[in-house]
Write a structure and sequence with these properties.
By secondary structure, the protein is mainly alpha-helical. Helices cover 75% and strands 0% of the residues.
Length: 314
């Protein structure tokens, strides 16, 4: 505002002509025929007041544009700071096992264009769908919404390992509603995105664990599903328990005890390979894992049942 006042005094004094500002006279009327405005040297000399007012308005317009730029930049900085704040809150709630609070927080930003918010919303939607209190109808809706959020996250940032990971997870979930053919048909897409996630972040134990699940799933695929796979692909997706075991161990090396399900699957894979001693070791670790989530509790129960089952057989 002080600058505007000084400019007004400057222009009112008569020193703010084109020459007074150090500009050539021709610059004051820079547009030719058909231009928005045109000032001739005779008009400048004959009506200095008109020229001064025109120059003042031009100057004010420029100042307005500069102010707009400053405000826009400030708004962008504020928006970025806001996103960072929401991400911090989201990660805290996730680590605390506050599934419903996390979902409520992130659904406020479902129209966001930020990949980091969107993949977290995909994860939160899926987590809510897994809760025992979620109806089948709600679960299906949440699974499809999660896929849409993950897809948008990937579109916004193809370099996000988490976007690739959650896109693959959500495609797999949707397959449960679209039949075995769709699930098998999507298998290569799912594998591709898990591998991309690992490539982008080799220290993400969860992505490595998920590749292990992919291998485990196709290693234990029943015969009738294998027949469907052969009908769909010349070379249908396949894997072995040994491959699955390699990924589960690799995930554990990257981040020991990071996930109760990885411990459970190590135990189950060793059972498939008839190594009961190592199976018991990992199943005990899964059973004793501190339960932070509903899934952890389910895994504790399954691990305890498996231990009881094969011990009774001995």
């Amino acid at each position: 505002m002080a600058l505007v006042v000084r400019l007004w005094h400057f222009l009112s004094s008569g020193r703010g002509t084109a020459l007074g500002l150090g500009l050539p006279v021709a610059a004051a009327g820079c547009r030719g025929r058909g231009g928005a405005w045109r000032l001739h040297s005779s008009k400048v000399i004959g009506k200095p007041g008109t020229f001064r007012r025109g120059l003042l308005f031009s100057t004010l317009s420029y100042l307005g544009f500069e102010t707009y730029q400053v405000i826009s930049q400030a708004a962008m900085v504020h928006a970025t700071a806001k996103v960072e704040e929401v991400l911090e809150q989201a990660d805290y709630l996730y680590e605390s096992g506050e599934t419903e609070k996390l979902f409520q927080l992130l659904t406020q930003y479902k129209e966001s264009e930020d990949a980091e918010l969107l993949w977290r919303l995909a994860r939160a939607s899926r987590d809510i769908s897994q809760l025992s209190g979620t109806s089948e109808e709600e679960k299906k809706q949440l699974v499809y919404e999660a896929l849409e959020y993950a897809k948008r996250a990937l579109e916004k940032n193809e370099s996000s390992f988490a976007a690739h990971k959650w896109y693959a997870i959500c495609i797999s979930d949707v397959g449960d509603y679209e039949g075995i053919k769709a699930k098998i048909a999507n298998a290569y897409i799912i594998k591709e995105h898990f591998e991309k996630a690992i490539e982008l972040n080799p220290k993400d134990a969860t992505s490595i664990h998920l590749m292990g699940i992919w291998c485990y799933t196709f290693a234990e695929m029943p015969w009738y599903q294998r027949r469907i796979a052969k009908m769909l692909f010349a070379t249908p997706p396949s894997s072995t328990y040994e491959e699955a075991l390699g990924y589960f161990h690799r995930a554990e090396q990257v981040d020991p005890n990071f996930y109760s399900k990885n411990l459970l699957l190590l135990g189950k894979t060793y059972l498939k390979l008839q190594n009961k001693k190592l199976a018991a070791f990992w199943l005990m670790k899964a059973k004793d894992y501190p339960a932070h989530t509903e899934e952890d509790k389910q895994i504790q129960t399954e691990a305890a049942q498996l231990l009881t089952s094969f011990r009774d057989k001995n």
